[in-house]
Amino acid sequence: MKWGTLVSILKQTHFVPGNIENFRANAKIRGFSVAEYARFLSGFPYASPKTTADEEILRFLREKLTEGCVYLPSGSDRRWIRACAAQHQMGIRELVEFYGYKACLTSQELFDIRTRRKHIEELTQHVVCDNVVYLPIESAAYCDLSAYAGQRQIPLNQYVESLGFVRTFEKSGITLDKVETDMRPYGDDDVFSGCPLIGSKIINAKTLDKLNISAGKLIDTVLEQPATKLTFEAKKEIALALINHAKGWDGAENTDFWTYIAL
């Protein structure tokens, strides 16, 4: 086109003048605004030569594509895409998603994306029917997924479902509503089902002493005020203290476990 070019901006065609000064002067002579003159010449809305076109933004996003996600750590690249987003009154994430990509702005987000992809691959190896998986508790996949979910205080089954699978507890003969006896929450107590590996944590003696004192205070509070609602973290603290106390039980010295655990 003689007076400029047609470019795609935010997925819509715009007219960009070749020489903005001449374009403005010609528009003024004819009694047009720059927007009106652009419409008159091309039939499309005006865009400043300084506006970043879709082609350039898409090229940038494809170059930053990692694990199916546009990874944008802090630095000059982040500043450039932030300026592009600001041109259209958008945030970085909003702009990236506008072009059909998932934005990943921190290393933690990238880690989570890679981890979820890895977990999906692991679950695929345990599919028994359609999207139903049988996950043996002794399997590496179970340990991996339950540890990850536990750290985020997400029940394992819920996390598995977020990955697009449904967990069964029988290797053959699909049963979707069965829960392992030792993993079933009682009442609203979901500490052990949400963090099944809590007992594997190794604690040094100094930290364990502090833990026992803190857990003891929490237990005293509940005994004195039964209506007290403990936070999930408080429940985990008591559970961890109880488990480590149980590890010290010696049947030869004290044959009654429950007497020992109550001490």
What does this structure look like?
- It is elongated, with a radius of gyration of 30 Å.
- It has a 3-stranded mixed sheet. Strands 6-7-8 form a 3-stranded mixed sheet, covered by helices on one side.
- Helix 10 (205-224) packs across helix 11.
- The longest helix has 20 residues, at 205-224.
- The chain has helices at 20-29, 34-42, 54-63, 76-87, 92-98, 107-124, 140-151, 156-162, 191-194, 205-224, 232-246, 257-262; strands spanning 4-9, 12-17, 65-66, 69-71, 103-104, 127-129, 132-134, 166-168.
- It has 12 helices and 8 strands.
Question: How do the strands and helices of this protein lay out in sequence?
Answer:
Blueprint: E1 4-9, E2 12-17, H1 20-29, H2 34-42, H3 54-63, E3 65-66, E4 69-71, H4 76-87, H5 92-98, E5 103-104, H6 107-124, E6 127-129, E7 132-134, H7 140-151, H8 156-162, E8 166-168, H9 191-194, H10 205-224, H11 232-246, H12 257-262
Parallel strand pairs: 4-5, 7-8
Antiparallel strand pairs: 1-2, 3-4, 6-7
Helix pairs in contact: 10-11
